[in-house]
Amino acid sequence: MTREAAIAGIEDYFDTGKYFEDLARRVAIPSTNQDPDKRPALHAYLVEEIGPCLEEMGYRISIHENPDPSGGPFLIGERFEGADLVTVLTYGHGDVVRGHEGKWRDGRSPWVLEKDGDRWYGRGTADNKGQHTINIAALAQVIKSRGKLGFNSRILIETSEETGSAGLREFCEAQRDALAADVLIGSDGPRIRPDAPTLFMGTRGAINFELSVNLREGGHHSGNWGGLLSSASIRLANAIATLVDKKGRILLDDLKPEEIPDSIREVLKDCTIDGGENAPEIDPDWNEPGLTAAEKVFAWNSFEVLSMEAADPKKVVNAVPARAKAWCQIRFTVDRDPLTFLPAIRKHLDAHGFDDVEVGQEEDGFLMQATRLLPDHPWVKWAAGSLEDTLDAPPVILPNLGGSLPNDVFSEVIGMPTIWVPHSYAACSQHAPNEHVLAPMMREGLQMMTGLFWDMGSGNTPRKIA
Predict the structure, then answer these.
(1) How does the average pLDDT of the chain come out, rounded?
(2) Residue at 196 is within a domain
(3) 184 and 332 share a domain?
(4) What is the Cα 257 distance to its own chain's centre?
(5) Which of 321, 334, 319, 320 is nearest to 408 (CA)?
(6) Which of 46, 202, 385, 437 sees the fewest Cβ atoms within 10 Å?
(7) Residue 103: is its pLDDT beyond 90?
(8) Which sign does the torsion angle of CA 415, 417, 422, 426 carry?
(9) Residue among 453, 414, 434 nearest 175 (CA)
(10) How far is Cα 438 from Cα 190, in angstroms, rounded to an integer?
């Protein structure tokens, strides 16, 4: 059997509706970890759906409880074919965000996969059931066509990604030997454009924190005391304005990368960002001047105020606010250590006369580390070459995604190069009502991954690289 025949086989799998059937069955399992009443569905997704599918493909399956009691279970699947072969780890997550029942267009249910032209609607279609279903189907097609993979395969499916991958790091530390591999091949996140197959090799990191002002107990009448008492909301707004300007440009150098490596500029120079239909229009003057849009989101840091509150916004009264709070976030590249951000902000605010502004993070505050492989890494060149052989055109290569994934667990804790091939696009409504995927993109994803896994078993691959 040839590579071309394997790809033809996966095209038939899609064209005859079998991919739709598999995805529909998985979407129907309401495996959201944000709703306590639906937590049993997390186990059901692994035990009743993914586990049996992988066992039919010759994988040995084990289900593991999460070391974090707030997190859902894990599945590890392994197909071992030879000690001298490359080992590949494939990752996906079976949990989804809340269904938002009753808010979907045209009365759709989030738990029913429904076609509308090239759009397939359903919770998890894009994030992440549709994506890991593609990768599992591609592995199955290679086994069917070749009689074997030609490499060792390990698969990790978690069920807590949508709540920050609770317990994933501890689990991978304990299971390091069971998950060790030469390379991670995963699929999550969006392409840079709907029509542009994309590779990315890491993610920007993210840290959430709070800025708050607590001046006194209770507000005081703004007629009697306005102009005499300092206002918490005004103090906070002005403090934030010393950190980021009216155009979103970060003013504190300690929160910015020192520079963009030449190799990163080179791969980004021709990148055009397009989220597809219904995507918001980019503000060209936002963030650091002189950077391209691609450099701003893939190679630079951003500071965001996610939410603000002063006094009680639901019961506004004519009083000078005594308290104000802002929930902030920094998205950052590998060029900066996020543990330096809050001390730098503290020092900066003190120097600018804002010692009354508190800088803090909740005990379980959100922090995801940044990761990146440079574009000239051998595994990047190999994967890009495989996709080009399938598509007759090179994919777009991004050093890292603009968003965040728990990629540092794989690159640092387990220790391996990481390659991500996304099968979604930015305007897919993944965390909102009307989540969907595009059928042509799913078909192309199946073609790409079947070709990639076929090539992985052909023997001409990089091995362990320091």
Answers:
(1) 95
(2) yes
(3) no
(4) 21
(5) 334
(6) 385
(7) yes
(8) positive
(9) 414
(10) 12
CB proximity list for 113: less than 8 A, separation 6 or greater: 20, 23, 24, 27, 28, 120, 121, 122, 125
Residue 443 φ/ψ, nearest 5 degrees:
-65, -45
Domain housing 143: 3-203+371-456
Query: What's the pLDDT tens digit per position in 263-283?
Result: 899 999 988 888 777 778 899
Which strand (E) or helix (H) includes residue 383?
helix 378-391
Range from 111-115, 259-263, 450-454 carrying the lowest mean pLDDT = 259-263
Q: Which two tokens stand for residue 233?
A: 């909301």
H or E element that contains 88: strand 87-93
Domain-terminating residue out of 320, 349, 368: 368
The domain that holds 151 is classified in CATH as: 3.40.630.10
More confident residue, 217 or 465: 217
Beta bridge partners of 114: 121
> Does 466 reside within a domain?
no
Prediction pTM value:
0.88
Residues 198 and 250 in one domain: no
CA distances (Å), origin 31, targets 42, 162, 320: 5, 11, 46
Q: How many domains does the chain have?
A: 2
Peptide bond into 128 cis (omega under 30): yes
Question: In this structure, what DSSP letter does residue 156 have?
Answer: E
Same-domain check for residues 15 and 154: yes
Same domain, 144 and 199: yes
Could you say which of 322, 342, 368 is where a domain stops? Answer: 368
